[in-house]
Amino acid sequence: MWQYQAPLRDMQFVFEHWLDAPRAWAQTTRFEGLDLALAQQVLEQAGRFSSQVLAPLNSSGDRQGCGFEAGQVTTPSGFVEAYRAYTEGGWSALACDEADGGQGLPQLLDAALQEMLYASNHGWAMYTGIAHGAYLCLKAHAPEWIKARYLPQIVSGEILPTMCLTEPQAGSDVGLLRSRAEPQDDGSYRVTASKLFISGGEHDLSANILHLVLARLPNAPAGSRGISLFLVPKLLDDHQTNNVRCDGIEHKMGIRASATCSLVFEQAQGWLIGEANRGLAAMFVMMNSARLHVGLQGLGHAEAAWQNARSYARERKQMRAPVRPAGVSAEDADPIHFHPAMRRTLLELRACTEGMRAVGYWVAHLLDQAEHHSSPVERQRALQLAQLLTPVIKAFFTDQGFHLASSALQVFGGYGYVSEFAIEQTLRDSRIAMIYEGSNEIQANDLLLRKVLGDDGQAFAQLLLVMREEAAQALSTNDCANFGTELAVLCDKLAAVVSAVRERAVEEGEYPYRVAGDFLQLCGVALLGFAWVRAARVSRLLPDSDPLQASKLQTAHFFFAYGLPEADYRIASIHAAKAGLAFIEP
Amino acid sequence: MWQYQAPLRDMQFVFEHWLDAPRAWAQTTRFEGLDLALAQQVLEQAGRFSSQVLAPLNSSGDRQGCGFEAGQVTTPSGFVEAYRAYTEGGWSALACDEADGGQGLPQLLDAALQEMLYASNHGWAMYTGIAHGAYLCLKAHAPEWIKARYLPQIVSGEILPTMCLTEPQAGSDVGLLRSRAEPQDDGSYRVTASKLFISGGEHDLSANILHLVLARLPNAPAGSRGISLFLVPKLLDDHQTNNVRCDGIEHKMGIRASATCSLVFEQAQGWLIGEANRGLAAMFVMMNSARLHVGLQGLGHAEAAWQNARSYARERKQMRAPVRPAGVSAEDADPIHFHPAMRRTLLELRACTEGMRAVGYWVAHLLDQAEHHSSPVERQRALQLAQLLTPVIKAFFTDQGFHLASSALQVFGGYGYVSEFAIEQTLRDSRIAMIYEGSNEIQANDLLLRKVLGDDGQAFAQLLLVMREEAAQALSTNDCANFGTELAVLCDKLAAVVSAVRERAVEEGEYPYRVAGDFLQLCGVALLGFAWVRAARVSRLLPDSDPLQASKLQTAHFFFAYGLPEADYRIASIHAAKAGLAFIEP
């Protein structure tokens, strides 16, 4: 049956060795009191919550789905209790400021928590997923009275926020949205909107819900420059119901336990957040954190897929393998993880999952440094890198999450296709993350057009610098010299391909749009390569008796032989795309 | 909303130009009376049946699923009536011998029919899917009295057969099966078996069901050499119920309208088909046709995905595209099929779908030639090629069907993830085809180990010969010379990689198992390349006024620029896999 245990050992490895996080924490005033022992304690508690409270509700939540009647949403059995345990455990407060009642812990720890929540129960975690982003957004842009009133309630989990962006005609293109807000004499606004696909737009987990709504002021400019952000609570101060109505919930392929709502706002009372017509900028504060979270969904599904496939592959016996591990004698049938095709699948699951964890946590760690590092230069550098990497995390991780869930399903054979084992649920749940929070195609354009070509390659040069430093260190490390050589060659190729794209883009403006998807995949593979060089190198610091030492080196070897050829393929595809791309005839 | 129209124009193009089928039909006595006009008429009728009868039941069948109560299965609303229309239309008789009441039409036409059935309603088509294979199997191996009694009923559709192979402990490894059959004095057998994942094991479409059951005779040798095949009817001659019980149906990720049954046989009366202990050989008759059918499921899903994505991409407007077709002026937002990432997705959908259609129909056509060509040499050559290509069709097409369904879903954005548009159903339905009828990993081993290395490369040399002939013809055709050059280079690379694998396999027996998956993908891509060279070349025969002429050339250009780089990637992966592959630690 489907099961999930938080991969605490690997998380700890990334914190301690791959990131050397304690050294960075010591360079901030915010985290100087934090040490690995405390971090480990938090991870263990989060692990218990995810495996003991959320994981047992994953399949039942999917089967049951949400109830909807007369505007009310009922979440699946156990969800309300799990949410109570979540707030009582202080998980909603983890990375919030102590001044607001938060625990003041790093986003790095929150990233590990999020991975666990999404891995153990994506549907449930949709309700809490936007809370930290909304907290950051309000903190940066809301008037003081709103901050004073609502931030502590978000931190405590008394209220849950939503992000109301999509409308039927405005999905990827937020500039097309039509929702309206009219100013009132008392400083509030009347918001009239019809919003679609709003996760947690209505539910029974928290008493109140805070809707962050994008809408247009009267006479606002057309397009995305005329959009403002409003806070519209479900319940007003005197516990009076606001004019917000849930019109229905979607029947979806996956995350069925998450209520995806149509919301109708009819002259609902709301307040402007940030400046008029600058709603996208205000919401942008949520973006890096929200996109990182979605990337962590991909990582979480990959981890769940890997755990379940590994466990099934050890139990299931079918056919004799051409070769067995030393000392294992032949039986009628071998466990299927002896078979080469299954070994390859399983090693790919491990290599991608552990590699993504290192890279994903790195970005969370960069966001902490961007906010709290004592050096302004380092803060700037960290922000630049985090912004560059965010679209890769969002798109590459979620592509991989879906791909790896499908690979894991294949390990189960026919049993993978039936609901009983729930690996098919992992596949269904994982698919949404490629779409929402900016589709993966939009991430690819953001990466290549804005983040790489848009700043004259400065951020990308920063990334290459980090990777080249790693290559140099690996070159002088036992067992790792070859990895260092290969990583240096890869950096040269990356630099060359960016130059080539930049030159070609001058001649033909559409070219970078054609290759953006390949470029993002290339960056994803290169980052995994980087992750595995560093993992191999720092695993040398572990005692010989630690099985992780051999495992990391082995998986690095696997990735360099079996995973890295994709980089050349993507580069070849980028060059091949100099050929035009026809329009589909009507 | 989800819709399906049979792609009659492209089917006709493959029949007439790509295959030049009428010329081959003329070289057989069986099909010499068949011409394109008649074939076209059959296709049109099949198209009407699939789009007017089956397609409207696709989504409702998925939502409703099958009912199960007290051993009885109820199919979704409309399924019984659709099955009646199917048998009354004579579709069950299409490719059966006239002597048995069949229409004696080629498997090529049946392949087109199957593509339509699976594309329009995979769940429904599961009930009829095995019938032709069972017909062939019984025809080849059953005693005369069984043939006389049952073949006409299969042909007329009065009864539907099943294939009862899988048991809980025996999936890919049929040698592990434990079902038993004991001979009786009257020449029949008592079959005791517990079978799992039996498609159509019980339903309300036909009055009787014929189970083809693999089981062991007393004292049969262990493993796959001790397996015999039995025919076990649900109803015996006097309409008495046999001791076969449906114990339950699976809840599955997709094809929910198809009843996937657990069947319990308790001393059920059955009859031996073929020789004792030669059950796998007898069932093998069904294999080529059954695996081709599963491949056609992948093709059908790809076609449905392509149609629906194209249609949605034309209607949906979001954001301005960097470039528009000549003469189209800017609006607030362009139809999304103007955006480069979407154009690439849509062209990939077209290129793979139409390319697979040519290759898949070619294999069906080869099976016709293998049976009916006047020359024994040609019959042998056709069979050799069909057997070589069958695992590629099964695995590559179904991988593509799933991949392309996911690409199409992405075109729909958030609308793709909700049930309303049913593209998510296409994705869910398509996933099973990678698993059943021999998992795609087993197909890869079959291709490389048995079909390519196993016969000293004779069949593969035949394939290269066909492809090189095509390259030579393209070289001397207007607009196609470059395709010819590239195809010839690709043939050289294929020959080289097979030699390299063969040499390495001598040194290390496990190596081909490690690369079998990559090799199968390589063959799939190469076959698409071959398909597109021929499509481009023979499209020159169309009048200039036919839009298909330009479309085929355009899509060939797309495939050679954007699709073919994968071939080098697969070759590089095959070489990289010389590195060992660790065992996962327990």
From TrEMBL, chains A, B:
Alphabetical UniProt keywords: FAD, Flavoprotein, Oxidoreductase
Q: Name one Pfam family in it.
A: Acyl-CoA_dh_N
Domain Acyl-CoA oxidase/dehydrogenase middle positions: 163-267
Q: Does the keyword NAD apply?
A: no
Q: Which intervals hold domain Acyl-CoA dehydrogenase/oxidase N-terminal?
A: 41-158
Task: Using the record's annotation, list all stretches that form the Acetyl-CoA dehydrogenase-like C-terminal domain.
Answer: 471-579
Keyword Oxidoreductase among UniProt keywords: yes
Q: Where is the Acyl-CoA dehydrogenase/oxidase C-terminal domain?
A: 277-447
Cofactor(s) needed for function:
FAD
* Stored InterPro entries: Acyl-CoA_dh-like_C_dom, Acyl-CoA_Oxase/DH_mid-dom, Acyl-CoA_Oxase/DH_mid-dom_sf, AcylCo_DH-like_C, AcylCo_DH/oxidase_C, AcylCoA_DH/ox_N, AcylCoA_DH/ox_N_sf, AcylCoA_DH/oxidase_NM_dom_sf
Family as reported in the entry's similarity comment: Belongs to the acyl-CoA dehydrogenase family.
Protein name per UniProt: Acyl-CoA dehydrogenase family protein
Question: What is the organism field in this record?
Answer: Pseudomonas kulmbachensis
